[in-house]
Amino acid sequence: MSGAHEQKAPLGVAAIGYAFMGKAHSQAWRNVAAYFDVPAVEQRVLVGRDSEQVAEAAARYGWAESATDWREVIARDDVQIVDICAPGWLHAEIAIAALEAGKHVLVEKPLANSMAESERMVAAAQAARARGVQSMVGFNYRRVPALAFAKQLIADGRLGAVREVRASYLQDWLADEDSPMTWRLRKETAGSGALGDIASHAIDQVQFLLGDTVTEVSGRLHTFVGQRPGPSGVEDVTVDDAAWATLSLAGGAVASVEVSRVALGRKNSLRIEVYGSAGALTFDLERLNELEFLDGAVPVAEQGFRRIVVTEPEHPYVGAWWPQGHVIGWEHTFTHQIRDFLLAIRDGAAPSPSFEEGLQVQRVLAAVEESAAAKSTIVQL
Ligand code: SOE
């Protein structure tokens, strides 16, 4: 291995948030340079509100230090990258301050809880980019090898003109009505429910796979469990449990999106089906190493969905891991995400998905909410 970047001092990373996403990102920061040829990084500091718990998480997940004040951390000279794994209501404030302090920023999806916050984040990202400071949104499913490969097949014209997409993201972790309140069930902290949390992934996938933009939306939201046990008694749930939408894309395709966190038996099932004039493909995150492809160029009598096991070195990201045929898991998508972020920083290029792409997803989410509130209006973007 050679290259000017390898001589440089390691990039210092600070992560803000140590719960589920902080844990997932931490393992990616810990592993990325061992498997991919990226600039060296050091996990300098993990930030959280509870000093004892964050110190324990920092020690467990490989961070040199822990801290409780993110403002002090983003001012540090030995921190070049800020990775925001905190809940959505904190994204805008932290991301804008970090970008203004000259730090590269990776922020978990969705970009923010509102259009106004998202627009302010985009303005800060654009100003920072002009100074060589990069930013990216963590839509990690773009880095599932099978989905990155699906994008290649579509871009190479193997499906012809894409006509229809069916995207669903079904989970069941809220199916039990005694499952307690969390910040994810309060509008003021989460912005929305299944919509922002997981329809954001599905909508990002539709636009990512097709390389296209949603222009028109019709939506519906529903809350099945209106109250849940909170820390001091029963509380109202103020966000949706499930959401539905139909989307028109600029290139002529139409997509349906269906998401739920109360779909009993579905654990983490992001399913995508894409139907074109010359081929079709299907994917399910619960079987993330596989892609089913129907090649319309094959004689009709022999046509059928063919299962491709996406574990060859020729497939995106896969060559860095195990010998061919050895599967990878959900956590690898975060390592791939950080790999792409670091390469963009090294090359002085704008990483994708940019904050602008995150804002485009927010526009679609806002249109779904507007359409749902108006009951069956089609909302033009
Ligand atoms: C919860 O629904 C959740 O953790 C989402 O917040 C993540 O983005 C998704 O990847 C898994 O499910």
From TrEMBL:
Residues 12-130 form the Gfo/Idh/MocA-like oxidoreductase N-terminal domain. Keywords: NAD, Oxidoreductase. Residues 150-281 form the GFO/IDH/MocA-like oxidoreductase domain. Pfam families: GFO_IDH_MocA (PF01408), GFO_IDH_MocA_C3 (PF22725). Gene3D superfamilies: Dihydrodipicolinate Reductase, domain 2, NAD(P)-binding Rossmann-like Domain. PANTHER family: BCDNA.GH03377. This is Gfo/Idh/MocA family oxidoreductase.
